[in-house]
Amino acid sequence: MSSPLADRIRPKKIEDVVGQKHLLSENKPLRKIINNGKIPNMIFYGPSGTGKTTVARIIAESTSKSLYKLNGTSASTEDIRSVISDINTFSGCNGILLYLDEIQYLNKKQQQSLLEYIENGQITLIASTTENPYFAVFNALISRSTVFEFKPVNAEDIAEAVKRAYSILENENNYKITAEDGVIEHISFSCGGDVRKAINTAELSVYSGTANENGINVTLEDVKALAQRSNMNYDRDGSQHYNIISALQKSIRGSDENAALHYLARLLEAGDLISICRRLLVIASEDIGLAHPTAISIVKACVDSALQLGMPEARIPLAEAVILLCTSPKSNSAICAIDAALNDVRHGEYGDIPAYLKDGHYSGAASLGNAIGYKYPHNYVNHYVAQQYLPDKIKDKVYYQFGDNKQEQAALAYRNKIKSQ
Length: 421
What we know:
Blueprint: H1 5-8, H2 21-24, H3 29-36, E1 42-45, H4 52-61, E2 66-71, H5 77-85, E3 96-101, H6 108-112, H7 115-119, E4 123-129, H8 133-136, H9 139-143, E5 146-149, H10 155-173, E6 176-179, H11 183-190, H12 195-207, E7 210-212, E8 215-218, H13 220-226, H14 239-253, H15 257-269, H16 273-288, H17 295-309, H18 315-327, H19 333-346, H20 406-420
Parallel strand pairs: 1-4, 1-5, 2-3, 3-4, 6-8
Antiparallel strand pairs: 7-8
Helix pairs in contact: 10-11, 10-12, 11-12, 14-15, 14-16, 15-18, 16-17, 16-18, 17-18
């Protein structure tokens, strides 16, 4: 059975790898390491189809060490022991290079079993993962390795890989492939930076193309049917999820409605309605807060509407909420205030509650001195009376700082007025 085209055309030289110029161009760190020939322990991190496995294989096969390949999705503890058992044998006399794909699927004990041999240099590890290694990989392995981040490949670089795929298919099958204008560009842009997906789509486009006396004709219509939606890199439990959510919140905080709508669209396209709704409610309190205190009520109404409507209509109230939050005045005074208070509580900065604030609604409360001397604010002018509410130990603490927006400055002016009277 023939292997997939993406495997058959996998580059054998670093120069042929598309993308990752920040790592593989001349004078870039990873390229220098490869040229030097002294391979350290490395972890390659990034989305699928960005060249992690290809680069790891090229490096591994360029060394004099014995090469072992394991995949975290199927490797057992016994497989790892088998690699370790070859240390100091004839087959491992020049050292062992272990290429471990999808390392995040190994449990902590399996990862720990490699530590001793990585530490003393008997095993050189090249691992790859699609998940953030600082979350998915055992910290002791991280500290003994260099992490390189692989990024989605841009469409221009992917186009070269697609052209190469068509050329190889022509040579393998001895027929000419004619691609309509726009075919290569559409495949390149619709694969979400994943070279493997682009090559697979190119291969399918040939198999579903129209045969004629001149060979195979690939139409733009056929390719659009094969790649109906952008193959955007997204994993609801992985790094891409958190990166897009983070970008959405930071764009709203920065009052950039166009960027925020872009990230909203990416989340909508991924079908992640729950994450959007939750995050918008957080933003309404964290970043808009008391500068526009009714914003959270409007956002809640938009969120409720979106959840009731479902897609595709949900996009409308969610866009409304995003634009409202972007164009609203901003204040983080509420989150700063509560975090400051929590920090004191967590570090023991508190004291006994003043006796006159304690509960007095039970027999015997008075004998304990509880609720005696409490001043009821509603009995005073402007419903305010000066009175200590914090414990003695922290009686002068100030957690809330009025923001410089119109709403909070009006509240500050009112506060100063009633205190002065």
